[in-house]
Design brief:
- With 389 residues, the protein is an alpha/beta fold.
- 42% of the residues lie in helices and 14% in strands.
- The protein contains 13 helices and 14 strands.
- The strands form five sheets. It has a five-stranded mixed beta sheet with strand order 2-1-3-4-5, with helices on both faces.
- α5 packs across α6.
């Protein structure tokens, strides 16, 4: 059965802060979608796409934009569909030739691109496509130059703050907010790097628990029973997923715990030894690293090096109950199972259960095999079908 062409939206914003407010609202303008839907007689798709990152870097191909391209090439987004963006620089701010290649890649696959800023439709059936693309090329060149200027301005601002070394009346360093993001136990809302009133003492308590050689699972269970967890950025929305093993597992890795921060700007490193209030001493930091390293070696020797799952660690499995990531575990019979990481850590908000890995993997393999043979029998390339599956 042929898929129905629909109207899809794609937006890209430069920061997670925008995602919580007007940034996404403006760029996925419902009125623009409805206008296109009425004008071209196509239904609006239930799914929209957006990335919280700068398209000036090629990393955006790993996000929703990469999914859009994959769906277009696999047929998941039907030909004659329309992809609505605010303007062409939403697609890419890489070099202009690469940006134009992305636009051509979409329209050559039969999917049209509509820019809401000027009401222009890009289609391979356009008799004036060559002239339209020349104008677009000039437009994207200008957008690319503006992005470079903005990037240099951002780095220049960060560098001036670092060199200036300004501090408030309490001695807290001025925050370098234009690059990087402050960890959950620090508060930079005042413009200076201050300890978070609620979470900083918790971070200090975690240090103590790690130094007591408490397991990650035990620490998560304790924190979830006593403290509200910081909200994390998940799928462009800040949500509460409790104290997860990922948060605690990575906790001891950052030298910022000692107050030291390293900024890398245009290949040069700038180290500020007292950039942030210290959660622990340098001695405690290295003690934590030694404890975690020792425990990791023990764990690796006993269990984790002996098995692996086909689907874990690649971001395709999520818990149907809470949306958390799925992790691999061994049951008492030494069989691999998939289990929600939040449920594994006894988070109250997740009641998810585990499932045999072989059941999930067998189902996925069967679907992929069906797609492969169907595509081969019809004399078409199977690559897109596998990606769609």
């Amino acid at each position: 059965m042929m898929k129905t062409p629909k109207v899809y939206s794609y937006s890209r914003i430069s920061s997670a802060k925008q995602a919580g407010g007007t940034g996404i609202d403006q760029q996925t303008d419902r009125e623009a979608l409805e206008k296109v839907s009425i004008e071209y007689g196509l239904p609006i798709a239930d799914e929209s796409f957006s990335d919280v990152s700068s398209g000036y870097h090629a990393k955006h191909l790993d996000g929703d934009f990469g999914r859009v391209l994959g769906l277009i090439e696999s047929g998941g987004i039907a030909p004659e569909s329309i992809l609505v963006v605010s303007n062409l620089d939403r697609l890419s701010r890489q070099t202009v030739n690469e940006a134009m290649a992305q636009l051509l890649r979409i329209i050559n696959a039969g999917v049209r691109v509509y820019t809401s800023i000027d009401g222009k439709l890009y289609s391979k059936d356009d008799a004036n496509l060559t002239a339209t693309l020349i104008v677009s090329l000039i437009y994207m060149e200008r957008a690319n130059e503006e992005s470079q200027v903005k990037a240099k301005r951002t780095l220049g601002n960060a560098l001036s703050i670092i060199k200036e070394g300004a501090r408030d009346a309490d001695g807290y360093h001025k925050a370098v907010r234009s690059i990087g993001r402050a960890p959950w136990y620090l508060d930079v809302t005042s413009g200076f790097v201050r300890p978070h009133k609620y979470y900083f003492p918790i971070a200090q308590e975690i240090v103590g628990l790690v130094l007591q050689n408490q397991s990650i699972k035990a620490i998560c269970r304790y924190l979830n029973s006593k403290y509200e967890a910081p909200k994390i950025n998940s799928n462009r929305k800040f949500v509460d997923q409790g104290w997860s093993d990922t948060t605690i597992r990575r906790f001891h890795l950052s030298k910022l715990l000692t107050g030291e921060q390293t900024f890398t700007i245009e290949g040069a490193e700038y180290v500020i030894s007292d950039y942030a209030p210290a959660v622990c001493s340098e001695s405690e930091f290295y003690q934590m690293a030694a404890i975690r390293s020792k425990n990791a070696r023990k764990s690796g020797n006993k269990r984790t090096t002996e098995f692996d799952g086909l689907l874990n660690g690649i971001g395709v499995l999520t818990c149907g109950w809470c949306g958390g990531s799925m992790t691999k575990v061994l049951d008492r019979h030494q069989k691999v199972r998939y289990r929600c990481a939040n449920a594994f850590n006894k988070a109250d908000y997740c009641k998810g259960f585990s499932v045999k890995a072989e059941l999930v993997e067998d189902a996925v393999i069967r679907v992929c095999a069906d797609k492969v043979w169907t595509a081969k029998d019809s004399g078409t390339d199977a690559t897109g079908a596998i990606q769609a599956a």
